[in-house]
Design a protein that fits this description.
4 helices, eight-stranded antiparallel beta sheet, single chain, alpha+beta, 8 strands
Length: 195
């Protein structure tokens, strides 16, 4: 009898894991289908934030960042910091772009509420992800869907408009990540990394 119960539990476990695998595969296909459909649309969206854009050259990026730094809008040069006040509380963005052929193809942005504390749930990254989703939906006139993203191996809120993907997800104990990605240039890199 004990062996029968053990075999039953083992079978249930295998079925459950198999179901999770199928759900993961389906979500992966959903993400990849979304990327393909948007790239096939031929729509080109290069604008990002603060005047930065995909295709901006490395020197142009440095010169422009220096100008914003001189105006007191940004601080830093290797890790750029920008104080934002468009959420429910002050927060800090930290970013630096990734270049391909000396052109911006991606800007990963780490954001954390300045008032974050382990006991202050309203400023946890889970709440921040929701706040960022609401803000960017209005700012970019877009809609986010939650999908499994193979490249980062986790669920994220994703908006893809033509070549521009905006990806929002929990990054660490105190921060969320907003990834701006030019799919025209990094799609093959992302696909190779996820295999």
């Amino acid at each position: 009898m004990k062996l029968h119960n053990l075999l039953t539990l083992l079978l249930i476990g295998i079925l459950f894991m198999g179901g999770s695998f199928l759900i993961g595969c389906e979500s992966k296909m959903d993400y990849e289908t979304l990327v393909k459909d948007q790239l096939d649309s031929g729509v080109q969206n290069d604008s990002l934030f603060l005047g930065y854009h995909f295709g901006m050259g490395r020197e142009e990026f440095r010169d422009y960042s220096w100008q914003l730094n001189q105006k007191g809008i940004l601080t830093g040069f290797v890790d750029i910091n920008y104080q934002i006040d468009f959420l429910k509380s002050k927060a800090t963005m930290t970013f630096y772009p990734e270049f391909q052929d000396d052109k911006i193809v991606r800007i990963p942005v780490s954001i954390g509420y300045d008032s974050w504390a382990p006991w202050n749930e309203q400023f946890w990254p889970e709440a921040l992800v929701e706040d960022l989703q609401d803000y960017f939906e209005k700012e970019y006139d877009t809609e986010f869907i939650q999908v499994y993203v193979p490249e980062i191996e986790q669920q994220a809120f994703v908006s893809i408009d033509g070549n521009r993907e905006i990806r929002i997800y929990k990054n660490a104990e105190a921060t969320a990540m907003v990834d701006f990605i030019d799919l025209n240039n990094v799609e093959t890199i992302s696909t190779e990394e996820s295999e």
